[in-house]
Amino acid sequence: xxxxxxxxxxxxxxxGKDVELRCDPISGHTALYWYRQRLGQGLEFLIYFxxxxxxxxxxxxxxxxxxxxxxxxxxxxxxxxxQQEDSAVYLCASxxxxxxxxxxxxGPGTRLTVL
Amino acid sequence: AQSxxxxxxxxxxxxxxxxxxxxxxxxxxxxxxxxxxQSPGQGLQLLLKYFSxxxxxxxxxxxxxxxxxxxxxxxxRKPSVHWSDAAEYFCAVGAPSNTGKLIFGQGTTLQVKP
Lengths: 115, 114
What we know:
A: mainly beta, seven-stranded mixed sheet, four-stranded antiparallel sheet, B: mainly beta, six-stranded mixed sheet
């Protein structure tokens, strides 16, 4: 079946602009995660959705970052007034349930470059 | 706070040689442990995971990992490396909680020499 998809695959924007990154999880997966991967670093957790609620937003770096999810479907990560330090690959993952034992399946990521 | 350390940023091995990638974690109790692989242009793929029980776990692509509580380690091994194993490898830890959040190490890039 289809895996996790993300769009766009690449996004180049100017400092100060807003960007929206989209994630389509695997159908039927109730849990959805956003992570950020800066160059040469590991993944940093940003936010977790269970259904359309976000019980854990602890990784969002500032109030310029927000995310929403429609039901158990698409999620959008929005970064307002982008800064150069926001340049990274943004990865989305989904899992069948919310337990740590549920395997997370990752999308290919969106590479964001802020000029 | 949970943390994961992968001491080796870059490793080069010859094709056919054995491989061991190191991972150390910091967590108050027994964590859930994962190894993921990220090939160029592809998303992360789960290689194996440990939750409890037998401390030696087998994964896909011929990989295995051993959980050693006394050393807070979860090293990844493969007896004979293939050129297609060249990729970046991430160790991750999760807490037995109801959020599934994972904490990742910085990754180890594996280069395979012919």
